[in-house]
Design a protein that fits this description.
Number of strands of chain B: 11
Largest interface: A-B, 23 and 24 residues
Shape of chain A: globular
Strand content of chain A: over 45%
Structural class of chain B: mainly beta
Largest sheet of chain B: 7 strands, mixed
Distance between the termini of chain A: 37 Å
Helix content of chain A: under 10%
Number of helices of chain B: 0
Number of helices of chain A: 0
Shape of chain B: globular
Oligomer: heterodimer
Radius of gyration of chain B: 13 Å
Structural class of chain A: mainly beta
Radius of gyration of chain A: 14 Å
Helix content of chain B: under 10%
Chain lengths: 112, 112
């Protein structure tokens, strides 16, 4: 069983459309991170959310941490081709390895 | 700052050959990690280190070995390469296990 379930797995949209991707778990976490991985590159941190119900904005990207701290969403407004990439959520799971656990990611393709 | 540097970027190996993937970081991070990324499978932890001289197995350690003689370097050794080790390998580092992870650009390895 995956600790983090991300949906959808793949999303192909036109420039200017809005979209939301999700990261869900049955476990409670003290914080959750979102990374973006562009083709041919390593993942890069976008944001860390730490408080239940927290909303953070990064230009056209809006991140929300669920009230119960079990899930998170990422909403992109007016997507652009530069938003293309793999979006990964990650958490630190106590009792596991001394590192972050990543979801499988949502692959986003934004066409002009 | 260079961050996390991996070499080589690409490599083709024949079955049974061995090689070392190099990873170095200049952020004085204690925690370092090796992941492999296969299409649709997310990032899987191979080995990690919590400091110089200390290493531990991750989720998929078979066929790999690591060493950590200095804070900066964390090489990954493949012995007797197999086609199942065809993948993209990422090295990462962080200040703490739940902190932001900084990734290298990856090594694309093909075993034929």
């Amino acid at each position: 069983t995956q600790l983090l379930e991300q949906s959808p797995q793949f999303l192909s949209i036109q420039e200017g459309e809005n979209l939301t991707v999700y990261c869900n778990s049955s476990s409670v976490f003290s914080s959750l991170q979102w990374y973006r991985q562009e083709p041919g590159e390593g993942p890069v941190l976008l944001v860390t959310v730490v408080t239940g119900g927290e909303v953070k904005k990064l230009k056209r990207l809006t991140f929300q941490f669920g009230d119960a701290r079990k899930d998170s969403s990422l909403h992109i407004t007016a997507a652009q081709p530069g938003d293309t990439g793999l979006y990964l959520c990650a958490v630190f799971a106590k009792g596991g390895y001394s590192t972050l656990t990543f979801g499988k990611g949502t692959m986003l393709l934004v066409s002009p | 700052n260079a961050g996390v540097t991996q070499t080589p970027k690409f490599r083709i190996l024949k079955i049974g050959q061995s090689m070392t993937l190099q990873c170095t970081q200049d952020m004085n991070h204690n925690y370092m990690y090796w992941y492999r990324q296969d299409p649709g499978m997310g990032l899987k932890l191979i080995y990690y280190s919590v400091g110089a001289g200390i290493t531990d197995k991750g989720e998929v350690p078979n066929g790999y070995n690591v060493s950590r003689s200095t804070t900066e370097d964390f090489p990954l050794r493949l012995e007797l390469a197999a086609p199942s080790q065809t993948s993209v390998y990422f090295c990462a580092s962080s200040r703490n296990p739940d902190a932001e992870a900084f990734f290298g650009q990856g090594t694309r390895l093909t075993v034929v």
